[in-house]
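Whiteboard transcription, Tuesday session. T.W. wrote the structure tokens on the left side:
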């Protein structure tokens, strides 16, 4: 007898072992028809996986993100299969799913062209129609080396025991369909016939493992969906996304620049961009101040011993800039990739009592990460950026309340900026990590409980936690339906051990606190880039660097003085150039100004204004007092209160 427990805590009993597909079918035929993959005891599996012991299961249907990820990963395999069919002798590297799609990296004997993607796509459609089953097998390393004897990159993956590719110290997981085989941990859809609605989108260059000294490969990107409407809508969104590209709009709106002198992944903020950034940061500061956080400021570099103690040099060194040498004593200093070790030192600077906890330290802290040049992408992926970073030190009993408070805080903050559609990922322990199993389980259960308490839809991202603890990532959907990861909340039992943190409890005993890492907007640079693309540069009035453009007709200098007094506290510009009104209106529209006032000599005589509010009908001869009321109502800053 096997007991299967479902997410709603209900239990079903089965007389013998059962596959994921048959489990879905035992509930309903409609569920079996829409099922794509299944989570069994925290591990994502194919529907063909045989459940032989009591298990906790969750079936994912075509409506779930995990199912889309599974479809896209399967489509990446079909892409590699098609390429090898058409171009024998090609070496293939890795092909994961990514946000909204997938890619696969290849080393062709002769580079292909963008126009060749149609031919590859047609071969993929032929494979799809042939209804090939995806079959999982486990083989030895020796067998794997023989199977992929002509594939240099697969040989390297086998030797490196890369679990993301289905490789462990003991055995190798592979997937076969027809005569094609690939290293993979899965899961996959049951059959290629499910892969119908896909499109290869572009061809790019990529270094093997993202390292510039490695061979340069060709990367084929694509997208895949469960139905044609979703595919068509995605392709339309991509067209819209090109128009919204924050790098293009950042230049057009005069917000920021990147130069050869600063180096890749770093930006210079021009005055209007600096205003936008300051508005975001000031709003975040005020929200934190009103919710029990204390400010902290920390250095940009620290001695190597700090990063050795925190574990960053063991677990994160590849993401850190090379050390700076102190020639006097040969000490090494590192630019900080994270703020947490400094906040820990602030906590440790005094004897702490349980009466002080929770302690919440907040900082808009700049960090530096040596991202590979191939993954840099404007403000969205930079090498130097500022986080709205905070670290909370609390007792074990306070964890769940703090997580609940953080979720409420984060959701309210994101909604203030216009993001209403919010989902979550719960990321569990990665292979390379520190801390003991009991602490990891306790931390993971606290995060899960908080998500369920808040009724937030989430999926489990297996092995995607930080090296020091599990985490919640909140994702928002923007105006054109794209999913962005923003807030991160991480529970950490390990760092208090590393730094020997303590507090005195009610029994006068020294006890270890729990640490929570969190960033709600994340990187301010990245968040700004997301805002630009979400609003296509047409920011809400309270966020706009220039809120009001005053266009003059004739000499109205005296009247302007009266207007400026009423607009005190707002951000405005005056266009008094000797140009036609139409040209001035065109420039104000191009700069995406929320409110345009037109002031002429007749307005001064009649004490009126013409007011153009974005997305509303233009108004003429508006009484002065009414115009000012409308301006204040449209430019009102959201009130943040929990």
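and on the right, the sequence the group agreed on:
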């Amino acid at each position: 007898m096997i007991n299967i427990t479902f997410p709603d805590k209900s239990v079903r009993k089965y007389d013998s072992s059962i596959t994921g597909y048959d489990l879905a079918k035992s509930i309903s035929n409609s569920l079996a028809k829409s099922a794509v993959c299944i989570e069994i005891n925290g591990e994502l599996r194919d529907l063909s996986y045989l459940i032989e012991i009591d298990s906790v299961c969750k079936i994912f249907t075509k409506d779930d993100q995990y199912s889309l990820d599974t479809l896209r990963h399967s489509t990446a395999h079909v892409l590699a299969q098609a390429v090898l069919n058409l171009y024998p002798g090609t070496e293939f590297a890795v092909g994961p799913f990514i946000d909204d799609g997938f890619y696969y990296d290849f080393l062709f004997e002769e580079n292909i062209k963008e126009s060749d993607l149609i031919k590859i796509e047609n071969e993929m459609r032929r494979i799809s129609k042939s209804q090939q089953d995806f079959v999982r097998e486990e083989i030895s390393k020796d067998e794997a080396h023989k199977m992929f004897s002509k594939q240099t990159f697969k040989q390297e993956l086998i030797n490196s025991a890369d679990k993301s590719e289905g490789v462990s110290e003991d055995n190798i997981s592979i997937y076969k369909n027809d005569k094609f085989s690939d290293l993979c941990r899965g899961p996959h859809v049951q059959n290629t016939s499910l892969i119908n609605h896909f499109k290869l989108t572009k061809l790019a260059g990529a270094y093997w493992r993202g390292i510039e000294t490695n061979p340069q490969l060709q990367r084929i990107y694509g997208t895949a969906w469960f139905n044609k409407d979703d595919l068509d809508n995605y392709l339309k969104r991509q067209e819209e996304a090109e128009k919204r590209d924050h790098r293009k709009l950042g230049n057009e709106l005069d917000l920021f620049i990147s130069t050869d002198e600063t180096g890749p992944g770093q930006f210079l903020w021009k005055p209007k961009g600096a205003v936008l950034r300051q508005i975001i940061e000031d709003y975040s500061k005020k929200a934190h101040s009103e919710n029990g956080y204390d400010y902290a400021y920390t250095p940009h570099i620290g001695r190597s011993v700090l990063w050795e103690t925190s574990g960053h040099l063991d677990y994160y060194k590849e993401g850190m800039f090379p050390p700076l040498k102190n020639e006097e004593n040969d000490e090494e200093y590192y630019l900080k990739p994270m703020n947490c070790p400094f906040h820990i030192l602030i906590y440790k600077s005094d004897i702490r009592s349980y009466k002080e906890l929770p302690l919440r330290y907040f900082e808009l802290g700049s960090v530096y990460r040596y991202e590979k040049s191939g993954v840099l992408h404007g403000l969205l992926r930079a090498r130097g950026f500022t986080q709205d970073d905070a670290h909370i030190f609390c007792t074990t009993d306070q964890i769940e309340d703090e997580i609940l408070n953080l979720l409420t805080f984060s959701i309210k903050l994101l909604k203030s900026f216009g993001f209403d559609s919010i989902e979550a990922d719960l990321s569990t322990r990665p292979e390379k990590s520190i801390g003991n199993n009991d602490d990891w389980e306790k931390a993971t259960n606290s995060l899960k409980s908080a998500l369920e308490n808040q009724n937030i839809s989430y999926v489990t991202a297996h092995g995607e936690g930080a090296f020091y603890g599990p985490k919640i990532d909140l994702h928002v959907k923007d105006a054109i339906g794209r999913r962005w990861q923003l807030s991160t909340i991480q529970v950490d039992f390990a760092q208090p051990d590393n730094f020997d943190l303590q507090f005195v409890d009610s029994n006068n005993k020294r006890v270890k606190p729990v640490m929570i890492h969190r960033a709600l907007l994340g990187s301010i640079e990245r968040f700004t880039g997301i805002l630009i693309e979400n609003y296509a540069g047409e920011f809400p009035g309270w966020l706009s660097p220039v809120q009001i453009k005053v266009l003059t007709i004739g000499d109205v200098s005296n009247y302007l003085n009266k207007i400026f007094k009423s607009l005190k506290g707002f951000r405005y510009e005056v266009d008094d150039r000797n140009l036609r009104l139409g040209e001035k209106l065109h420039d104000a529209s191009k700069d995406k100004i929320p409110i345009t006032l037109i002031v002429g000599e007749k307005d001064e005589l009649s004490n009126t204004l013409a007011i153009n509010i974005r997305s509303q009908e233009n108004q003429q001869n508006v009484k002065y007092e009414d115009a000012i009321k409308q301006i204040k109502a449209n430019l009102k800053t959201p009130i943040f209160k929990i």
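Someone added at the bottom: The chain is about 35% helix and 30% strand.
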